[in-house]
Amino acid sequence: MTLGPVMVDLKGTGLLQEERDVLAHPAVGGVILFSRNYESPQQVVELCAAIHAVRKPPLLIAVDQEGGRVQRFRDGFTHLPAAGLLGRLWDSSPQQAAALAETFGWLMASEVLAAGVDLSFAPVLDLDRGISSVIGDRAFHRKAAVVSELALACQRGMHRAGMASVGKHFPGHGGVTADSHQVLPEDGRSFADLELEDLVPFARLIANDLNGVMAAHVIYPAIDAQPAGFSAFWLQQVLRGQMGFQGVIFSDDLSMGGAEWAGDYIQRAHLALETGCDMVLVCNRPQEAERVVESLGGYSSPASSMRLARLHGQCRAAWDNLHRLPEWRRAVEAVRGCDTEPWLDMDLE
To answer: In this predicted structure, what is the pLDDT of residue 175?
Structure first.
């Protein structure tokens, strides 16, 4: 059985029988975990093992473990700083910031992989233009060149740990004030403006083995009439064609307000897949997720299945063994030394 085009979520900290039945459906290809699915490292290791045992090849398991406001696994995991802290460090010490970004990427990926999760949706490649509260310090910096360098370093660390990288939110969410979790934001800039700024980090990472991209629920009316995540122009002409991206294209969560433009859940999923996404996320709406899954029972995309299969985590260390590694201890010390900010919950996306 190949990996299907839908990523779904779970209700709690264990795998229910009705959830096993959904995960066995050929249209399902992955599971995304949230804070509600996490209780402890041992519990999430067992949960991931149960998910992976449902079928062969195993389903992909993903999480948003960016650090800062967006860190789903907390107690028992290293407290990760927001990406913006690395950007502030860059302003005074670029070399130190880049080294810490690589350490950050390795540490985040190593811990997530040891828990049994395949990938974290990271790094964030948006620019902190000072107007988007939902992005803000989730972005590394306001300047495209700095975001590119820090994201490249973070990706090096992730790859070294054995985790694929997924850059988000293509082609850039930092130029709008509205929150796409609630509404569909509009960015009125020209393509030339985006090409000079927001697209730069995506282009740099694509040239350096970026494995996945998550599309933004943002519309750019001066460029295309469809939001990026439902746009053949953005996903096929620009991302695949002009930028030469060969990896996986994920939709952002189809339960977000920014996705309502495309119709009901089934219409959203079908349009996203038709216009270029390899996998769609349907979160926090289990009944709608089941309807989407059933509607795609006959769906087949061998190219997408091959791309998705490459995202499984590699080189996993067992959780207890990871903590014995000198590199893990050094990484924890380095990251803790730079972080002075408290955790703030943002269990969205």
So the answer is: 93
